[in-house]
Specification:
Length: about 230
């Protein structure tokens, strides 16, 4: 499928930004598999009519309830950093509009997605079903606890910033798995962390690059300044 001119321009911009940030991320290019999946997911379908003209701008956009659909570069980079395989089972914390889940669905066997805001969970569930993403299951719940009924996961992706990594998400990660999560707050700064669990269950964390995400709400509220 040939990308639309708007999508092609966005892909070119993402490729350029990936090259520019390679010293942070360690990646000078994204996999063609990720880029092809990205080109096939219509970002405009995950936005309200009023925001659709801005759908292929490389920036985050509001989706209501003080939440956003993330910048396309960040979505593509985080997806690539997970090193996904076709048979993987992935947990997403923070469904939002459902856009990230749709991209993951193109790349893996099954996506389980948690969203704490009931209205967003319901809308994303209906949207993903209508668009034909049958391998995504959306549940309204607090993402700090993960989804133990479907664990362990080959990969976990968190699309909101937490003060620290929720222990349950590490516990539910398979040996050999990868977890991506923004950690920190808007006042002291946030870092995108890549957590890798080896086959012995040992965990290594690496900072990828500075980011700005909305806070992860729920059982462990984001720290606020005094």
């Amino acid at each position: 499928m040939t990308p639309s001119p708007e999508m092609q321009a966005l892909l070119d911009e993402i490729r350029a930004e990936v090259r520019e940030t390679r010293l942070y991320t360690g990646r000078a290019a994204l996999s063609e598999r990720v880029l092809q999946a990205f080109a096939e997911v219509p970002r405009h379908a995950f936005l309200t009519d009023v925001l659709r003209p801005a759908a292929y701008a490389n920036r985050p956009l509001p989706i209501g309830h003080e939440q956003t659909i993330s910048q396309p570069y960040i979505v593509a980079l985080m997806t690539d950093l997970l090193d996904l395989e076709p048979d993987d089972i992935v947990l997403e914390v923070g469904t939002g509009s459902g856009y990230q889940a749709a991209l993951l669905a193109k790349l893996v066997k099954q996506v389980y997605s948690l969203e704490i805001v009931a209205a967003l969970a319901e809308t994303a569930r209906e949207r993903l079903h209508r668009l034909g993403y049958g391998n995504v299951e959306v549940h309204q719940d607090d993402g700090h606890a993960g989804w133990p009924e479907h664990a362990p996961f080959d990969a976990v992706i968190v699309t909101a910033a937490a003060p620290d990594i929720p222990p349950a998400l590490i516990e539910q990660l398979k040996p050999g798995g990868r977890l991506l999560i923004p950690v920190g707050d808007r006042y002291s700064g946030q870092d995108l962390l890549l957590i890798e669990k080896d086959r012995h269950g040992r965990v290594r964390r690496n900072s990828v690059l500075p980011v700005i995400f909305v806070p992860l709400t729920g059982a462990e509220p984001t720290r606020r300044p005094p």
